[in-house]
Design goal:
single chain, alpha/beta, about 20% strand, Rossmann fold
Length: about 200
């Protein structure tokens, strides 16, 4: 689902890499595992290396829930407990080579507020503005929830938005949810790319 006849994209000042929720609980064996979620890690590492080479900002979002978070089934939510702050499940994937100066955005840290988007109730927008960002490149987990909503908010905030289609995986609670999410992102103005599209 890449853009037809897309030209090579030159990374430049004003570009940022946003890595969404690549945390242990979303990997195989985790509390809320995304099928093949671990497959995004080596691909994202290649993107990280590219951004480091270019001296461009890298931002990582994470779920950082309290034990009584409203999204948990015990509180009437949809999900099993996951990504509880300061637990192993909330840590970034061990193989993800985030640089020491990565900007970490914690979301859904209040018991009564959920957030599928990295922008929701966080300082992400302020961080991007402080860096003078115009284009964002988004990958991570999961396509049909936190990636989708982060991309939608990026577009609403008028960022030119690229989705790293080789570095996302879907929950697919319903068959085809991931594909629908990709189609929705494209319909709203995002461009699907892979590492091969970057010069």
């Amino acid at each position: 689902m890449n853009a037809p006849n897309s030209k090579m994209i030159d990374l430049q000042d004003g570009d940022a890499l946003i890595i969404v929720d690549v945390q242990n609980d979303f990997l195989p064996g985790g509390a809320l595992a995304v099928q093949n979620g671990d497959e995004v890690v080596p691909t994202l590492n290649a993107y990280i290396d590219l951004y480091l080479t270019k001296g461009l900002p890298i931002i990582a979002t994470r779920d950082w829930h309290p034990v009584n978070h409203c999204s948990f089934q015990a509180q009437g939510g949809s999900w099993p407990p996951h990504c509880i702050a300061n637990t192993h499940g909330a840590q970034f994937a061990a193989g993800l080579r985030l640089p020491p100066d990565v900007t970490v955005i914690s979301k859904a840290a209040a018991p009564d507020k959920d957030a599928y988007s990295g922008f929701q109730g966080t300082e992400l927008e302020a961080v991007l503005r402080s860096y003078g960002i115009r284009r964002v490149f988004v990958g991570g987990l999961a396509t049909d929830y936190c990636v989708l909503n982060t991309v939608k908010n990026a577009l609403e905030n008028r960022y030119q938005t690229y989705v790293l289609s080789d570095a996302i995986r879907a929950v697919n609670i319903h068959p085809g949810d991931g594909r629908k999410a990709e189609q929705e992102m494209i319909a709203k103005g995002a461009t699907m790319i892979t590492a091969q599209d970057l010069a």
